[in-house]
Automatic annotation (TrEMBL):
SUPFAM superfamilies found in the cross-reference section: Duplicated hybrid motif
InterPro entries documented for this protein: Cell_wall_metabolism_enzyme (IPR050570), Dup_hybrid_motif (IPR011055), M23ase_b-sheet_dom (IPR016047)
Required co-factors: Zn(2+)
Name the record gives this protein: Murein DD-endopeptidase MepM
Coiled-coil residue spans: none
Organism of provenance: Palleronia abyssalis
One Gene Ontology molecular-function label: metalloendopeptidase activity
Amino acid sequence: MKIRYLATGLFAAGGIATGGILLFDKLGKEPVPPSLRNAATWIPEPMPLPTFSNSDANDLDMGKKEVAPTFTSPAPLASAIAETSAPVIEPLPEVWSREIASGETLDTVLAEAGLVASERAEIALALAAEYDLRRLRPGHGLTVETGHDGHLQRVVLDVDDGVRIETVFGADVATRVLSPESELLIRAAETRIESSLFAALADAGIPARFAVDLAQMLGGTVDFRRDLSGGEIMRLMWREERVEGGVIGQPELDFAVLDLGDTQFEIVWPEDGTGRATIYRDGEMMRVFAQPVEGARLSSVFGRRAHPVYGDTRMHTGVDFAAPRGTPISATAPGRISFIGRRGGYGRVVEISHGSETMTRYAHLSAVPDGLAVGDRVAAGDTIGRVGATGTATGPNLHYEVRVNGRPTDPLSDDRLAEAVEHEERNDDAIMRLGAARTLLDEHLAGLLPTNPNERL
């Protein structure tokens, strides 16, 4: 009985609940917007069937037996492995280097470097192909490079003015000369002479060695001890070569002016390197002078002196110019070769006749140009030999004599040679050179021109 009532109650409750839900759903439903209704009814169009090419490559042969694919491992990259191998490092060469000291020869220095006699001889022959080894001097540098196996690789000889002689040893032996690139500078300065010409130049930062050139040019015309009382003006213009800021070689004078107050002397040096300087007095050409050795130091003057070898007092019949062995020697005046050979203590000599009365002698020479012979005509500035130390000499120098009717005379005061040269010069050309030199000097002193001529526009 009770079970029947329970089932009847549950059925009634379920009906009531269902009816409530339906009633609630009907009352809460709102109309759907047309756009949403259309979207809900959208059906995608059917995709087109694929088409197949008639190419044989794309035909599907369903009758063929299916073959399973095979897989292989990639081959190792041999080149990549080789490129990543460790590089072979060559051992560095062994380097030995030092300067040549006084009294040493190339052979003794190479022996100290541990080289055997055959290697030293090979090096000497190779270097001598480009450089006269007799010109070796203290201060020159030598560098020897050898490989780890002890074999020669390279030898470098550092000589004057930054020049290097390099020999490379290998299958062939090659020697070359390496010269540094230099910068040419033009400089000018003015100084007042108070005590001496040397001191005045040094105080103004002018190479003091120019005093020798000026004394040589004006010898016999100006007495630098008696004619200079103080206050005289000296103006100079010169050129010098520089490498990395340092001066190489000897500076060369271009123009000099000595103002004594009542008289003015001017000297113009040529640009052709012949050393044939023209001297002017108060604007008029006075004489032409050709130096026997360009840039040399006047080491001994004419007159009585203590002999440097024998020690007693003797007459020195010429003047001496100290210069490195091999420096060119020039004829100081036009003439004809009258003698080539040896004369006792003079050593190797060249003599030039300048007319019937005057002769110049150049002694202690190391060499004479090939082909130069007695009777040859030479002009002022022609090379007639090279500085040496033959005969009785304490070192390389030129002994220069001027003889008139067989008797020695002071080369720095005699005007006969100047007269022999002067007729070769045209006065108009000389005056034009003087005017150009004056203009350049004034412009350089005023700072209107650059010191480096390559900077001119």
